[in-house]
Amino acid sequence: MELLENAALILIDQQKGILHPRLGPRNNPEAELRMLELLAHWRDSARPVIHVHHLSRSPESVFWPGQSGVEVQERFEPLASEGLVQKQVPDAFCGTNLEVQLRSAGIGQLVIVGVATNNSVESTARTAGNLGFDTWVAEDACYTFDKADYFGNARTAAEVHAMSLGNLHGEYATVMGVKRILQAG
């Protein structure tokens, strides 16, 4: 597998609200370090970076506009040359101009990282794959939280993460670690 020169890094929801304790236990405690490794590589190689920020429609959300949760974490502050997409639902393509931005720039390959694996990462990766983008998801550069399944069974963040990646791999995206992505280009 080869990482193309114009592959876009899609960095999802690295806002202060995602760090709120009420979201519960999470997995991948080093995910942000892996995200920052990829971000540094993309910036060093002058590849396109698109930051995706969530502005919720729900006042109960940690991403409700007008409060500190929507502010970007300083370590993920977008550069002036980088793209920014603001979404209101988990899927970064829904109701935004993300597809238009990518297609007009001739970008056909995406590397998706961020949170939450089973929410914004999975929904964005599914749409990207359905739209025909060569989509990669960095399994160690995303994370999620403990969650009950449909039947009320408690699932750990690691289980939720693994199932979400299993849903994506081979059908919508190629799932791999950051080390392998960096080796690809």
From TrEMBL:
<dbReference type="InterPro" id="IPR000868">
    <property type="entry name" value="Isochorismatase-like_dom"/>
</dbReference>
<keyword id="KW-0378">Hydrolase</keyword>
<dbReference type="InterPro" id="IPR050272">
    <property type="entry name" value="Isochorismatase-like_hydrls"/>
</dbReference>
<protein>
    <submittedName>
        <fullName>Cysteine hydrolase</fullName>
    </submittedName>
</protein>
<dbReference type="Pfam" id="PF00857">
    <property type="entry name" value="Isochorismatase"/>
</dbReference>
<dbReference type="InterPro" id="IPR036380">
    <property type="entry name" value="Isochorismatase-like_sf"/>
</dbReference>
<dbReference type="GO" id="GO:0016787">
    <property type="term" value="F:hydrolase activity"/>
</dbReference>
<feature type="domain" description="Isochorismatase-like">
    <location>
        <begin position="7"/>
        <end position="153"/>
    </location>
</feature>
